[in-house]
Amino acid sequence: MRILKRLAALLAAFAVLLCALTGVGYLMTPPWKVEPYHGHLRPATADTAIVSKLGPTVPQGSYRVKESGIKVRLSPDVSVHAIVREPVDAPTGRPACLFIHGAGTGSAANVYGDLAQALASAGITTLVPDKRLDTYTTFHRDYAAMADDYGKSLKILRSWPGVDPAKTGLYAESEGSWVSSVMTGRDPSLAFSILTSPPVYPGRDQMAMAASTYLYSIGAPDGIRSDVTKLLGMDFAPLGLEYADFDALAQWNRLIQPTLINFGVDDPSMPIEQGAQEVMDRARAAGNRNVTVRYYPTNHQMRVGSRLAKAGLPLEPHYTRNLEDWINAVAAGTKTGDWSTPQVAGSRPDQLYAAPNATSPGLVSSLGVLIGLLAAGPALLLLAALGALVLLLARTTRRHRQRNRDKDPRFASGVSPCLWAGAVGGLLLLGGTLGYVTVVVVHALGLNPLSRVQNSLWIALKVLALLLTLVCAIMPGHVLLARLSRHSSRSDAILAGAGHVRPQSASPLDPEPILARGWGHWLVLILAWAGTLACLLSLAFWGLFSL
């Protein structure tokens, strides 16, 4: 009978604890999610050619190219190197293009060389400056200040011999499109804007879409994919990542220049359809219908051979020729109705997920809170281990001093193994979960599908989390059983008194405590149990208790 009572108490405590962890996991999940994208664009033709009704443009290779290294002074104490490439013996009054770096690039000598060379050979003067890196870090980026810096290079380009300032525009890739959006909004006299692989949306929204796409592509478990909203809904202020919330959308409301948008359909990181439609809609609202969209069978960098960015990959063969034709046609005065090729053309895109409109946080509202949650379990268990060591040393010393050794139990039977199992299990399972998340992230960044065994590990982690919850429930179950037993004893005593039956005398001393005896042992017990519970709460954040 006592075994059944013990089992019932344990199952009751386990059920309550499991429901609590499931509920906390639900509260940790923000009220938004990344939805599949349905507003697909359909290119009018697979041909990416760009042709103006005003006549043919200067083809690539028409001119030899002269390359010059210059210095651009950004402030009294800061200058950057830049490379100007210009067509030799080309007519004056020619167009020009300033190149703006995306994330991950900084040196003019190592990026855009093939693009800038090709454009210059078609009669377009180009300038590629180094990115200013003393104000650009992983944790801090000011796109308005970066626009100021690039504005210094733009001023030099506009005054370069042979260049028509009214025919000078911008080429920006990826993150650089946020910088160019500030510049086009500030300076309506810019002749054109080329946006290649633009994120379009604020970084947090774009990253939510990208992460979901990457995780889906590798077949990541649903629980891991749901972590995207938990992480990207947080306040990044503790790390200084305010630029993740840069209001990019507001900038596109002022895009009045002729615009060319280029996307690679093998780029899982960008909103290749939603973003293009967003820019077209906002430009149209500003009175600008001269927006051309081209899709290529390429990766993020408009290169072929791999979906990932790798050194040495060639540009898509038609890409530079289309850029040159578009720039020269715009410089010749081509308006919205002057194109003989469609507005949207190229390879057929298929965007899997939409960038969300809002990214509010869940219960874990910031990275600081998450770090505190992840550290709480190990920290409490470390304190419990130190406390247990102190108690062991004290007990050993006392035994050496006393001839009559104290053999009274300090923990109830089964409590000490439970504490050890919970502590070790909590640490191992938390470490294993973080390790598994790391493996999934590495696979996602490399677009390497998870194996069946790797996917099964997630199920194993969830099962182990249930077992750890059962271990953690033993102590409250033990307390519940003790209370039930005491209530039963009182009832027996009352019944015995009513029947004038003398109850069996009980020992005045109870040799075994309910859980622990002495404040030191109680402290160790509370720290160990709380540490295990904190580990379980961390596991709930990562989705191990999600249904």
How many DSSP H or I helices?
13
Helix/strand class: alpha/beta
CATH architecture of the largest domain: 3-Layer(aba) Sandwich
Beta-strand percentage range: 5-15%
CATH superfamily membership of the largest domain, which one? Alpha/Beta hydrolase fold, catalytic domain
Number of domains: 2
Q: Which geometry do the CA atoms define?
A: elongated
C-alpha termini separation: 34 Å
What name does the CATH topology of the largest domain carry? Rossmann fold
Rg (CA only): 33 Å
Please provide the ordered H/E string of secondary-structure elements.
HEEEHEHEHEHHHEHEHEHHHH
Protein name: Alpha/beta hydrolase
InterPro entries: AB_hydrolase_Est10, AB_hydrolase_fold
Keywords: Hydrolase, Membrane, Transmembrane, Transmembrane helix
Transmembrane segments: 367-394, 415-445, 457-481, 522-545
Summarize the structure.
By secondary structure, this protein is an alpha/beta fold.
